[in-house]
Amino acid sequence: MMEPEARNEPPSILPAGPAWIVAAWSFLGIAALVTAIAVARGCVNVPYWDDFDAYLGFLVRIEDASGLGERLRIATEFHNEHRTLTSRAAVWLAHAFGAPMNFRVLGWAGASMLLPAALLVAARTQNRVSQAAAAFFAAAFVLSLQHWENLFWGGSSADHVTVVPLSMLALLLLQPRSVRAVAGAVVAAFLAAMTLAHGLLVFPIGLGVLASQRRWRALTAWAAATLVLALWWMFGFPASPGHAYEHPGFGELLLVGRFWLGLLGAPLAFGSRLAAPWIGGAIVAAILVTWCLRWWREHPYHASLLAFLSAALLAIAVGRAGMGPWDFMVSRYRILSCLILAIGSWVLFEKARGGRRCARIACLALVAAVLGHWCEQTIDHWWRADAFHDRQLAGAAHYAAHGTLEGSEVQLYYDGPKADRILEDCAKRGIFDLARVAPADPHATVIEERPRSPQ
Fold first, then answer.
1. Helix 334-352 and helix 357-381: axis angle, to 10°?
2. What letter does residue 197 receive in the DSSP assignment?
3. Tens-digit pLDDT string for the chain (455 aa)
4. How buried is 36 (Cβ within 10 angstroms: 0-12 exposed, 13-18 middle, 19+ buried)?
């Protein structure tokens, strides 16, 4: 996946030898360690929001199903607008072997997928220096505490993070001219599509990759797989009344456009929802300029990643803009935006480090700015681990003390009576017992969220 290191490296004011490589990979290790510490502090074995239906209710229905056919139908049915077979299959398999549902383990498994996502950015690079640079930028944007929902909420990371490395792996496997690689790409793309809805976009992007390589047999096979999966996947699609595409018009188009730009700019907006769309517009302009300059021709794999990530954010904008016009600030969507920033920063770095002195100084400034952004995000979001941990345990303590989630100051689920029924049923069946994981003190402290900056 990586070409031999070039003998003649371009001159640079940055260390281009072992020192730079060691520093870059060491930073990735530090970022991964900081992220792991935050996950250990914030992730708890308490269900939250979608977890009640997606996992606890799912396991109850699996136990009540009459046969394998019905169980497969339940596992592949829609949850909101997604078919979340990947995470359901993992939970189902663990349950089949007698393991009780554990949301802390689910959180660790989901958050750990951030690391392969960062490492896959460093694939298909030209030499070891370029690879180390890609790893550095990926670590700075992907292994970041601004993804706090995906770090501390297992029900979020199990899908929102997992879909990303699966999609990236599929596009990576399409690069070499190999039948086995294409077969592996089909499997990875299928798993991505069965994790979250925007994983489906790997298939049309893959068509473009194979067409650009003029691999017509592989393209035909890929197109057939795309058609079959798309027809089956869309059967019974439950369109939501909040989806902007159900009420097409110029106003809805502007709403979707602003939401898409907001998703792109959110990681650099420092909490300002007003600034995010403008920053997103600047990012789009920069991508278009570099595309016109044909910078991406040297990096076809990363160009395909950029196309997928941009399309995925647009699909999210179409699906979410009508539900909450400011929801582009939600952290679980940022992994896609941060990967775009990581890849774009890496391409700029590659172009600048071999240029004139002013370009190399700008290259050094880019590295410093990205490192400073990671530090700021780490400091600014560090408190969220304790906040999420204590809030979830406070909800569990209320349930242990009163036998119900109703009346709790922490809302673990929007429908208290339904949540109580699910929890009672799970406890009887040995699937999950919330009362046992609750802290001894029923008056657990709840850390309220604090505003980051004026909106």
1. 160
2. G
3. 444 444 444 444 454 567 788 988 999 999 999 999 988 888 888 998 888 988 998 999 988 888 888 888 888 887 777 788 888 888 889 888 888 889 989 889 989 999 999 999 999 888 888 899 999 999 999 998 888 888 888 888 888 899 999 999 999 999 988 889 999 999 999 999 998 888 899 999 999 999 998 999 999 999 999 998 888 877 766 665 555 455 567 777 888 888 999 999 989 988 888 899 999 999 999 999 888 888 888 899 999 999 999 999 998 888 877 777 777 887 788 899 999 999 999 998 888 776 666 767 777 888 889 999 899 888 888 888 888 888 888 888 888 888 888 888 888 888 888 988 999 999 888 889 888 877 654 444 444 443 333 33
4. middle
Q: What CA dihedral angle connects 306, 309, 313 and 318, to 10 degrees? A: 100
Is the pTM above the cut of 0.85? yes
d(CA 227, CA 8): 46
CA distance 205 to 211: 10
Contacts of 126 (CB under 8 A, 6+ apart): 3, 6, 298
d(CA 330, CA 333): 6
Q: Which long-range contacts (CB under 8 A, 24 or more apart) does 283-290 make?
A: 283/340, 283/341, 283/344, 286/344, 287/340, 287/344, 290/344, 290/347, 290/348
The dihedral over CA atoms of 41, 45, 48, 52, expressed in degrees to the nearest 10, equals 160
Pick the closest to residue 167 from 182, 183, 187, 140 (CA basis): 187
DSSP lists the bridge partners of residue 78 as 83
Extract the tokens encoding 441.
């003190």
Q: What is the DSSP letter of 266?
A: G
3-state SS class at 170: helix
Tokens (6 digits) for 324:
């909450």
Please name the residues in contact with 201: beta carbons below 8 A apart, sequence gap of 6 or more: 167, 308, 311, 312, 315
When computed from its CA atoms, the radius of gyration of the chain, rounded to whole angstroms, is 23
Show me where the domains of the chain are located. Answer: 51-111+385-437, 113-381
Kindly tell me the number of DSSP H helices and DSSP E strands found in the chain: 22, 2
